[in-house]
Amino acid sequence: MKALSLLLCAGLLAGVAQAGGGPRAPTVLTLNDTGCRPTIGRVVFGLTPDPAASAQLAQIVQADQAARTGNPAQMDWKALAAQDEARRVQTLALLRSGRLGSARDAFSAALVFQHGDCSAHYQLAHWLAAQALAQGGIREAGWLYGATFDRWQMSLGRPQRYGTQFVEVRPCDIQLAPVAAGTTDRERERLGIPALGLARAQADILSDRCRRGLP
Questions:
Q1: Cα 151 from Cα 188, distance rounded (Å)
Q2: Does the first or last residue of the chain, that is N or C, have fewer Cβ atoms within 10 Å of its Cβ?
Q3: What radius of gyration do the chain's Cα atoms show?
Q4: Which among 44, 56, 59 is positioned nearest to 97, based on CA atoms?
Q5: Long-range contact list for 15-19, CB < 8 A, 24+ apart?
């Protein structure tokens, strides 16, 4: 069973609001998973926010999103994985420095680590998405909060909670990955996540587009 890398992130930057909340106390997270590339260690968010660091991150995430445009069947996934790793290394250096602090920074860094290669990367992405959601001002922060949690749980062999992740069970047969019971569509709506029925319909659309060779 092949997990699909969600290309739905590719259009998120267009809807990001400019504002990102006022000054906040720095928050710290330490994750030590040696199987990750790169290993995270200690990150600090909001210690000494720096516009230059934010501008650097904006360039990183624009490259991350641009790499995911076009037809997935025609992508060089091995090259993309190497590029993703390089972007994570750059983003992690900024996070370790404490020079990121806005909601936009948190959202952008979460997008980069959403394209990680281990559970700790997805956990960091979820933590960052939570920072963006708490500060407010970014319409898609709730969706990314749910998507990062779902990807984190699936990487641990658990079902997703919100229903944001799809799997390709065979070529061009795309299905919604198993969803744990207990989360209502009303909760999903509050985060800007589609109801499960709509997510399953989206899987059918993705399968059809795949069979027709469309992006």
A1: 16
A2: N
A3: 17
A4: 44
A5: 15/139, 15/140, 16/104, 16/107, 16/138, 16/139, 16/140, 17/103, 17/104, 17/137, 17/138, 17/139, 18/104, 18/137, 19/103, 19/136, 19/137
Spell out the residues 6+ positions from residue 86 whose beta carbon is closer than 8 angstroms to its own: none
**Token pair in block for residue 20:** 């990102």
* pTM score, whole prediction: 0.88
Give the pair of three-digit tokens for residue 128. 């960052």
In the chain, the amino acid numbered 22 is: G
Query: Which residues, 6+ apart, have CB-to-CB distance to 24 below 8 Å?
Result: 46, 101, 135
